[in-house]
Write a structure and sequence with these properties.
Elements lengths: L6 H9 L2 H18 L2 H13 L5 H10 L4 H51 L2 H7 L1 H43 L1 H48 L1 H6 L3 H54 L4 H13 L1 H29 L17 E8 L8 E8 L4 E6 L5 H8 L7 E6 L2 E2 L5 H7 E4 L8 E2 H6 L6 H10 L3 H5 L8 E2 L8 H15 L3 E5 L7 H15 L3 E5 L3 H4 L4 E6 L2 E6 L1 H6 L3 H12 L1
Parallel strand pairs: 3-10, 3-11, 6-9, 9-10
Antiparallel strand pairs: 1-2, 1-4, 4-5, 7-8, 11-12
Helix pairs in contact: 2-5, 2-7, 3-5, 3-11, 5-7, 7-8, 7-12, 8-10, 8-12, 10-11, 16-18
Bound molecules: adenosine-5'-triphosphate.
């Protein structure tokens, strides 16, 4: 059972780094012990030195270092404060280093968990989310978790402990002012947060308008020639101008309101600060609070701003982390392939479809109750109208999609019991539109396997690609694909065939794999492949009569059902889809 990502799960992963966590907490406590007294030190000299009421500092300095002038006491305490601040900085850096490392390890573990799950996800499930969403889960959502974990692990404990320590100190200095500060500060912070949220919403609106403009302008520019051809420049560009107008409005709102909101929350803080100051003055006037301690209290007001903000930010970060976990768990909920453990050892593979049914979506059955047998070494063909389910059958035979009903047997063993790895070693599906990796020609042919150049060249020769290869400056090391040289549709199809030759499977499925080739090249190619394919099982999906005619068996599909099967000669004799197909081909040629 694949455990979902939850706070408990993250906690468990954090605990895997117990030793570092303990060290982190030790440094946290030391850091707090160093930083909390800082606001107290210099203000106390107001009482002890300026108002000439020697107490703790002056007495201790006198005892250990001897007495001196005001400059002497101020200088010593200032040096102590600077040293404490420097130490606090150093411990802070060490702490950040420890907690960042732990959170990166946790995030790495989560990414690995997701990738390991994705590796086994079955195709139907994969398509239900789509690559865009999955990539967003792996990048954006995991990053959201990342910042949450960094926040929680390093800031939550530090900020809470700091607040507790400061609360203890300021309540000890003056109960009334201490409680006032402790209640007012978080209230102000909450108000600021609310205001920040409003700013966030305005920013979102601005982003939406920018995105809409971007999508619109991208489409307009992509289809520029078509727009011009249909004389529609005005209407398309008017829409773009309207979208630009939306940006103007939303951007204006965001820019001035965000500054106003920011100033507003700072002003509220200053109001409160003035009230604290007045209360402090009154406490000095009417109670026993000293001037020095009053200044120290003012120092603590600034001091607790950061931990209060940080604790609140964790609350928000928790909300986004929970949403991110929900989306990440959608990936972990994708069902994995039913992987069996039987290895297909024999290179001779008989394939049988038994009442096979399959649907991509719940509302429509793509394949209905299909049964047929293909003996090892047989050369069969599947034909049918576009959308009748030919590609789907081949994908099911190759084990890409999971069947819904019925069974596919390989040497009488159900697909459910066979290891998918072993199945794919035996079956090679040559696609109509092979996708190239943005990598060298060699990688695209070998998929990273160590295969000698001689073998690769032999495969290129069989696939009728030798000539193209000889014209490449960097030979097998030429980058092809997105950022490299673009190959034509026909070249890509032949490259896929060369891939298949190198993989040397026992069953080859050609899914309209030569549709982009001219008849002359196609004939040469199949002649080259003749001896290679001699003992192999070959399933050909094709639209050309010439390609299927010589098959030992032809299966005719219609709307997901097997409607006819037999040899060319047998089927040609009967009225039905095959005869229609033959007639159609003859009249079209
Ligand atoms: N990934 C998919 N998700 C949902 N529906 C799909 C998917 N792939 C194919 N289909 C649908 O399944 C049906 C059969 O498609 P399939 O590609 O197997 O037909 P085909 O006979 O190979 O067609 P063609 O000759 O045009 O390649 C079609 O209605 C198609 O729209």
């Amino acid at each position: 059972m694949n455990e979902k990502i939850s706070l408990k799960y993250i906690y468990k992963l954090l605990l895997n780094n117990k030793k570092s966590l303990i060290w982190g907490q030790i440094f946290t406590v030391i850091g707090i012990l160093i930083s909390v007294p800082i606001p107290l030190l210099l203000p106390l000299l107001v009482d002890e030195v300026l108002l000439d009421k020697p107490s703790f500092f002056v007495n201790n300095i006198n005892e250990f270092f001897g007495s001196g002038s005001a400059l002497y006491y101020v200088a010593i305490v200032t040096v102590v404060v600077i040293v404490l601040r420097a130490l606090h900085f150093i411990f802070g850096v060490i702490n950040t280093k420890i907690f960042t490392r732990i959170s990166k390890i946790v995030i790495f573990d989560i990414r690995v968990k997701l990738l390991n799950h994705l590796k086994k996800v079955n195709m139907n499930e994969y398509e239900s989310l789509g690559s865009g969403k999955i990539a967003a889960n792996l990048i954006t959502d995991v990053n959201t978790l990342d910042s949450f974990i960094v926040n929680v692990s390093s800031k939550l404990i530090t900020s809470s402990l700091t607040l507790i320590a400061v609360a203890f100190v300021i309540i000890k200095i003056d109960l009334l002012l201490g409680i006032m500060i402790l209640f007012t500060q978080p209230t102000i912070a909450i108000i600021s947060r609310r205001i920040a949220k409003k700013t966030g919403e305005l920013k979102k609106e601005e982003n939406t308008t920018i995105e809409a403009f971007q999508n619109n302008i991208n489409e307009t520019l992509d289809l520029f020639s078509q727009i011009k051809a249909s004389n529609k420049e005005n209407s398309f560009f008017d829409t773009s101008i309207q979208k630009a107008e939306d940006i103007k409005k939303a951007s204006n709102e965001f820019n001035y309101k965000s500054v106003a909101y920011e100033k507003f929350s700072y002003t509220i803080f200053l109001f409160a600060f003035e009230i604290f100051r007045a209360t402090g003055l009154l406490l000095v006037a009417y109670s026993d609070l000293s001037i020095g301690l009053m200044f120290a209290m003012f120092g603590y007001i600034w001091f607790i701003m950061t931990p209060v903000q940080e604790i609140l930010s964790i609350q928000y970060s928790l909300a986004s982390a929970k949403a991110a976990m929900g989306r990440i768990n959608k990936v972990l909920e994708l069902e994995t392939e039913n992987d069996g453990d039987i290895e297909l050892k024999d290179r001779k593979v008989d394939i049988s479809l038994r009442n096979l049914s399959f649907s991509y979506t719940k509302d429509k059955n793509t394949l209905k109750n299909i049964s047929f047998d293909i003996k090892s070494g047989e050369k069969v063909a599947i034909i049918g109208a576009s959308g009748s389910g030919k590609t789907t059958i081949s994908q099911l035979i190759a084990g890409f999609y999971a069947k819904n009903d019925g069974d596919i047997l390989y040497n009488n063993i159900s697909i459910d019991k066979i290891s998918k790895k072993s199945l794919r070693e035996h079956i090679f599906l040559v696609l109509q539109m092979p996708i190239l990796f943005n990598n060298t020609l060699r990688f695209n042919l070998t998929m990273g396997e160590d295969i000698s150049d001689d073998k690769i060249l032999e495969a290129l020769k069989i696939a009728e690609l030798k000539e193209m290869f000889e014209n490449l400056e960097n030979g097998l090391d030429t980058i092809v694909g997105k950022m490299g040289i673009r190959l034509s549709g026909g070249q890509r199809q032949r490259l896929s065939i060369a891939r298949m030759v190198l993989a040397n499977p026992s069953v080859v499925i050609f899914d309209e794999s030569t549709s982009a080739l001219d008849v002359h090249t196609e004939t040469k190619l199949f002649r080259n492949l003749e001896s290679f394919l001699k003992d192999k099982t070959v399933i050909t999906i094709a639209h050309r009569l010439s390609t299927v005619k010589n098959a030992s068996k032809i299966f005719v599909l219609e709307d997901g059902e097997l409607v006819q099967s037999g040899t060319h000669n047998e089927l040609e004799e009967k009225d039905g889809h095959y005869l229609e197909f033959v007639k159609h081909q003859l009249t079209n040629n």
